[in-house]
Structures are given as C-alpha cells and as structure tokens.
Write a structure and sequence with these properties.
Number of domains: 1
Shape: globular
Helix content: 55-70%
Structural class: mainly alpha
Distance between the termini: 26 Å
Strand content: under 5%
Oligomer: single chain
C-alpha cells in the first residue's frame, strides 16, 4: 500500500473533511495547507495527484495520536524519515488505543483471522528473532476493520 492510499482510507474511516485532515497535522505543530491535503487525496490517475512522502504520513499519524490520545509531556517525537507497514500499524494501534484483543476482534469483523502470536510479531523490534514484517494485505485488513468499527462514529 502506498501512503496516499492509507491517508485516503483514514480520512474515510475518520469521516474528516480536507480541513479537518489538515488540522490533524497542526497537532504536531506542523502547518500543512488544505490544498496539499486535497492533492494527496486525489486518485493516482488524476493529473493533479501528489505523492505523499513518508515524513508527511508519519507527521499525520503523530498528529492523529496527539488528537485522539492527547499530547505527551515533553518534546514531541520527530516523524520517521522512512516508514514501513509495521510502524504504520503500531502508530494506528496507539492512536486508536487498541489492545491485542481489540485488533483480533477487528480482524474477525471482516472475516479474517490472525493468531495472537502473528499479531505480536508485528509489534516486536526488528532485531528480535520473533519479528515479522507486516505485509500490505494485513495492513489492508486492519484498515478495513478500523473502517468498519469507526466509520460514521465521528471520532474527535
């Protein structure tokens, strides 16, 4: 999955308009104009489509954590320069305050199964022997489960 797809899915799940999406960036102290958000949300075929960088998606996810969970005391974490599915999954887990049981339930709502051991492997450090890379399909399932659970609930 690319960053723009993830960004679009999150917008749909959250039920935010372009202005609200731009305000999520402001939670990190970043100023992103609504026009950039609109271009990131365009489909790949659109001539105005603008690819979203890893730093911008990481900034958005950090802002989402701040918005949904509250800002952490002290300095704010710097956005990652490169993202992978495991980092995105972890940030979304934190933002939506999900425990392992909650995530397993999300997967079951879309008729996909994952074991607790498989799930915990996604959140381990990359240096761990039990670490497993989260492929696009698992991230897509997770985003679909989030969408099914939170869509229309007007998350603030």
């Amino acid at each position: 999955m690319d960053n723009n797809d993830i960004f679009r899915r999150l917008r749909y799940t959250l039920g935010y308009n372009d202005h609200q999406m731009a305000k999520v960036f402001a939670e990190t102290g970043s100023v992103i104009n609504q026009e950039s958000v609109t271009l990131w949300l365009k489909k790949h075929e659109d001539p105005q489509f603008l690819a979203m960088s890893d730093v911008m998606l990481a900034t958005f996810l950090n802002g989402l954590i701040n918005k949904l969970r509250g800002k952490k005391d002290g300095p704010q974490p710097a956005p990652e320069k490169t993202l992978n599915n495991n980092i995105i999954f972890r940030k979304l887990r934190i933002a939506f305050n999900l425990q392992s049981d909650d995530i397993l339930e999300l997967f079951s709502t879309i008729d996909k199964s994952i074991s607790e051991h498989e799930l915990s492997a996604f959140f381990r450090k990359p240096t761990s022997s039990k670490y497993r890379e989260c492929n696009d399909q698992y991230l897509r399932y997770f985003l679909s489960g989030l969408q099914k659970k939170f869509q229309g609930s007007n998350i603030s």
